[in-house]
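Q: Could you write out the predicted structure for this multi-component system? I'm mainly interested in how the pieces pack against one another.
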Amino acid sequence: AQPGGAEPVPAQPMRDLVWGKLNFLHTTDTHGWHGGHLQEPQYSADWGDYVSFAEHMRKKADKDGVDLLLVDTGDRVEGNGLYDGSHPKGKYYYDIYREQDVDIICTGNHELYIASTADAEHQLTVPNFKENYVASNLDYIDPKSGERMPLAQRYRKFQTKNQKLDIVAFGFLFDFTGNANNTVVQPVRETVREQWFQDAIREEADVFVVIGHVGVRMPEFKTIFNAIRKQNPLTPILFFGGHVHIRDAISYDSRSFAVASGRYFETIGWMSVDGELARTALSQDDADAGFSFHRRYIDNNLLGLQHHTGLDAATFPTEHGRNVSAFITKAREALDLDYAFGCAPKTLWMSRSPYPGDNSIYSWLEKEVLPDVATNPDRNDMPRLVIVNTGAIRFDIFKGAFTRDTTYIVSPFLSAMTHIPDVPYRMARKVIELLNTAGKIMESAPMDNRFMATPEQLAIHESILYEAPVLSDSFLDAAQQKPLGGGSVVDGGRPRLTEGYTTRDDIGLDGDDTVHAPVNFYVVPNCVQAEVEFPSDGEPETVDLVFLDFIAPWVLMALRLLGGEYSGEDVQLYVEGTFTDLMAGWIEKNWPRHC
Ligand SMILES: O=c1ccn([C@@H]2O[C@H](COP(=O)(O)O)[C@@H](O)[C@H]2O)c(=O)[nH]1
């Protein structure tokens, strides 16, 4: 854990890991949080702690004669000062990340939004993980020669260390279309028809492992599952997904299992499979070959990691892990990530509190920030509608210091505020409604309105509310729980639970390694809007329609549906600088400097 970070949480009821013959640790959508969550004790372990953890877990696997593999399913970048806070971005991140021995690794959409990020992936992460990086449906275009080539090998065949199991592994990205023009993402339904893929699924394999920056309930995984299963009726197929930022698990059939392991390095996913894995022992008669699959969502809590290894503060950190933590500390210092722009007077939530509402980060934007930052000296007296997509905000703001790190945590994107001047108000006022309707403005998938909201909102469609989100016996009674630490923190004889994930997936309610008190999740709209400089009575004839450039395609489509013939050429810059810088500037001006 990092100096100055929150102390890890003791005395939590824990569920142990169930080991099998083949075991996995999974990270996804870490978005640069490799220094851990400094303000949240439940997730404050850092990448160095994970290095130590994996070393101990590999040793145990070796001792027991089983196998352990580490996988990572992309979106490692964008969303934390440790990556975004340097020039060029990722100055320290690439060297920190490579310290973990990841056995199978693939790309997320965030590695591809900006051409220079994709270049860095090609020049740094791919060579850092040479034999382990898999790019089944992703090509890179060399900037000098213009040559198009696979970003990395299309699939990986290897043998596990201890049992010599033959693994055939793929690494996919969902059918993403927002990539910069130096990469090409092939739709998954086309990839599975490629000859190389058809040959790969005919390789002799004990287990197929499909890792992907794909939600486990997204159609892309189903397409891959069907293709592999058609050719291999008996072989276990294991899926590791991501992108939608939630903990989730699903079984596609009795020999396949899929896990998604959350977001922001809050979670280290665990999957194990037991049963007769050697293909030579399989026969059509074995209904399920005695396969059993387990999953756990391990909180990235240092004491929890120690618990799972049976070690303590003195014995847990390995030399390698310690060095990685120390390197992160140096990088954070060099980037001055703890520099405070101001002090947040209260916590502002994305989805834990209702919108609109006093504690909603989006209401704060609408009421306080947008009217102040969406200004253009040439058009300041013009009434305007200012629209921001809720996906532009990536994390809650906690009461206390708002630092350089927080800036990138809350809003890492380079989006600018653009506008279309003098739009008839009768048309402009209806845009927000269209952007927020659940259906699609356009038929084709890339224009799905929900892509303007956060990935969590994409996955969860209804608010999940608890009557008294404090203590619940049903969580306490869950199987296999054991108190972590001395259990001294008790409330009426029961452990006082910290708030956190209480995951319900297709397997049940016992996925989380730590028993938490549940937290509410409120659905929020795709976009929010501020009305600025409106006349005190009556309606304006025309308004400036101001919006983040990221949502320009949706805004233009909405206007078109409303009868407005606008194109990209009508969209002009409204304010210099990124939305992130504007927000940080507002905080510096409006919140007290020190807490
Ligand atoms: O410039 C941008 C890029 C992305 N977004 C929002 O992020 C999600 C995608 O997040 P993942 O972590 O890749 O799942 C996208 O749907 C947008 O809501 C943005 O606002 N601006």
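A: Regarding packing and overall arrangement: The radius of gyration is 24 Å.
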